[in-house]
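Why do we care about 3D structure at all? Because function follows from shape, and shape follows, mostly, from sequence. That is the central idea of this module. The next example makes it concrete: a single protein chain, its amino acid sequence, and then its structure expressed as tokens.
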Amino acid sequence: MFAGHRRGFLRGTLRSALALSGASSLGRVRIAKAVGSSDPPLIIRSRRPLDAETPVSAFTQRLTPNRLFFIRSHFGVPAVAPGNPWRVQIGGGVRMPRAFSIEDLGRLEQVTIPAVLQCSGNGRALFDPIIPGVPWEKGAVGNAEWSGVRLADVLHLVGVNPGQGHVIFEGADGPPNPKTPAYLRSIPLERAAAASTLLALRMNGEPLPLVHGGPVRLVVPGWGGNHWIKWVRGIVLSPEESPSFYQRTAYKMPRTPVPPGTEAKPEDLVSVTTLNVKSLISWPPEGSMLPPGRHEIRGVAWTGGEAVVERVEVVAGTDPNAWQPATLEGDPVPYTWRLWKYSWDAKTPGRVGIRARAYDSTGAVQPEITPWNKSGYLWNGIDRVSCEVR
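And the structure:
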């Protein structure tokens, strides 16, 4: 039922994506920063489609600026044909099927929610043995304020028929050829009706950039980015989850850990949904040289669902068990990350390892190493940085 919705749309190219993100290509692995800017450049992990991660050194603020926010693409950035206004068509098991324009959505009550968006494959390159896929290291994540309408309010206007259990979403980014499955995903109706689930129109107070899913994207705080559908054009209420490849086959991981290289049975796989607890060290950078004296180690920490980060601990030195509490900034709020800092007196010259781990309100703590899974999802092993005092 979505085929007609793609008329008037063009598949995005690397050039258009770079233009829309305010950057241009430079060298083999990076996107150049603007002339005169002190921003670190995004790190390109794939050119077609464009996948670029944020250097962890940029994670110094509560909100990640749009220009520094990581970019995840499945097929490419769509473009609106002239004279073809954007519509979000809602159908399936509803009483009053309807197409909503951006202006229609803008007239509904607008809410703002700060939330971490993290690609489910963030950290894939850290697994051993190596896993195929976009080789994300640490920066396929960011924290932003997302503004828009509650999906529940939109569903109320169309009326959901009895017996519906899932909401299926389609974006306007079409696959590169007919043999490639479209990126269709669904979420349970209960999650869709949660007050935190949005159709976002703005990001950090600005109109949602096209490269980040504008003019409208799904926001599912506390869940992995595989659910945050960009360029939403179609929504269908259904008794069953989406039959698509990206719902029934992709984005699955073992219910319990399996040995590296082992294939779990299909019945032992579950969908990737809730994020897990995680912290990152944003300063000092890996391989840095520091003079002896006092330094402030800094970073960010977040978790999934409606849990909150309650504690971060840091080790800086040769004793791997000398964990010390870091100072957390701000109040514990679901969905968003917290900045943390730790004052470290670097007295002894030489190579020093720094580690950080976070705890959340469910009692979960970052593990030493994340159990292996064949797709490289949800890496949250204790973060490590090595530097030298001299």
